[in-house]
Amino acid sequence: MHDITAAIHVMTRQGMRHEMMQGQEILQEQEILQGNNQGILQDDNQKNNVVTLAHGGGGELTNTLVTKVFQSYFHSPYLDTLDDAARLNINMEPADTYLLPPERPGQGATAAPGRLQIAITTDSFVVRPIFFSGGDIGRLAVCGTINDLSVAGARPLALTCSVILEEGFAMDDLRRIVASMAQATRECGVPIVTGDTKVVERGACDGIYINTTGIGAVRRHIYVSGANARPGDRILITGTIGDHEASIQVARLGSGFESDLASDVAPLWPLVSQVLDSPFGCDIHAMRDPTRGGVAAALNEIALESEIEVFINESELPVKPQVNAICELLGLDPLYLANEGKILMFVSPESSHRVLEIIRSHPMGREARVIGEVARERRSRGAPGGRVWLRTILGGVRELPMPIGLSLPRIC
Asked: Cα angle at 233 between 229 and 238, to 5 degrees?
C-alpha cells in the first residue's frame, strides 16, 4: 500500500499502466471525458442537440445550458442574477402585489417597514461514491444548500429534503446517510421541515439521489452578489483548495492507495455569519462557494457578472501536498477542482486585512489567505471585461479561462 505521493515515484520507475490497475476505472472515465470534451469543441451541432457529461461540469458549457435553455424560458429579474440563491423582496402589508422587484447592486437589502427579504435555493446531489473520506451524499446535500444561502448573505432558516431511491438500496446505508444529514443540520441549527421520497425500479437510478431546498433571511443592509464585485477589491479564500474533488478521485482509485486526505464538506454559515455580523459586513461585495469547476470557474463567473478583470497570485494559493500529488498523478489543476467547504470573498481593500483576521479566528478559516485582487483598470484598453489572470510563480501572467468540460462527473 502506498500513499499518493509515494505512488507517483513508484509509477515513475515501474510505469503508470502497471501500477494503475486498481485505478483503471477512473482512467477510462477520464479518457471518455476527454473524448467528450474534444467532440464538444469539434462538433457544434452535436453540442447543441444533445446533453453531454460536460454540460454538468460547472464551466462554460454549464453556463451555456443554463442561459440558453433554462434562463431563456424561465426569465425573471430574480433568476437573471444567476447567483447561488434568489433574493425575494416580500411585501408583508395587504396589497395587490406581494413579490416586489429585486434590489439593484449596491442598494442593500430591503429594510422598509412591512417588507421582508428572503433567499431561496435548491440543489440536487448525485455524487459517486456515496460514501467518501470526510463525508457522504447526505452531508453533502445539507451543506451544499446551507452554503448557497450563506454566500447570498442569508441566514439559513429551514431545509426541505427529497430523496429518490433505487429498489434494492441497503436500508443500513440509508440510515447512515439520514443520520449524517441530521448531524449536519445540528451543526448549524437549521432543521429539515418537509420532504418527499420516491422509489424507482432497479436500474432507473444509481442507488440514491437527493434534492435539498433551503430558505433563509437576508441580512438587512447587506448586499452580496456575483454582479457586485468592484475595482480594487481584494479576493480572499477561506482555506485550502481542491480537497473535495481530490478526495473523490482517491476514493475512485480504489484500495491500492492510502491517504489522509478528506473532503472539506462543511456547513459554512457559522463562519460567514461571524464576518457579516462584524463592523465590516457591508464591505463584503461578492461571495461564491467554488464547487463544480473550482476556484477558476467561480472567479470567471463573478468576473463576467461584474464586468471586471481579476488577478490572482499562484504563490498565494493554499493547496495541500496531498492535493498537489493527486493532481500531478492525474494531470489535474487544483484551481479547477471542486470544493465543498470553502468560500471566495471579494472585499473592499480598506477592510480586507480585518476581514482576514476574523476569518482566521474561526476553526474553518485558519488557512485563509488573500489570493488576488480586482484590477482598478482593465489590462488593455478596449478589452472586454470578465477575464481572470494568474500571476505565475515564474513571474509571468497567463489567462485562467472558464473550464469548458469537466475533470470528473458526479462530484457533488
From this structure: 90
pLDDT of residue 294: 96
Q: At what angle do helices 4-14 and 321-330 cross, to 10 degrees?
A: 30
Mean pLDDT taken over the chain: 85
Same domain, 316 and 194: no
Angle at 342 between CA 141 and CA 165, to 5 degrees: 10
Domain end, chosen from 219, 245, 277, is at 219
Q: In which band, very low, low, confident or very high, does the pLDDT at 62 lie, cut at 50, 70 and 90?
A: confident
C-alpha cell at 359: 476569518
Same domain, 241 and 170: no
* Closest-CA residue to 282 (of 193, 202, 345, 369): 345
Note the helical H segments in 162-261.
Answer: 171-188, 243-253
Tell me the three cell numbers of residue 191: 432543521
CA dist., res. 40 & res. 24, Å (int) = 24
Q: Is residue 167 part of a domain?
A: yes
Distance between CA atoms of residues 104 and 97, nearest Å: 19
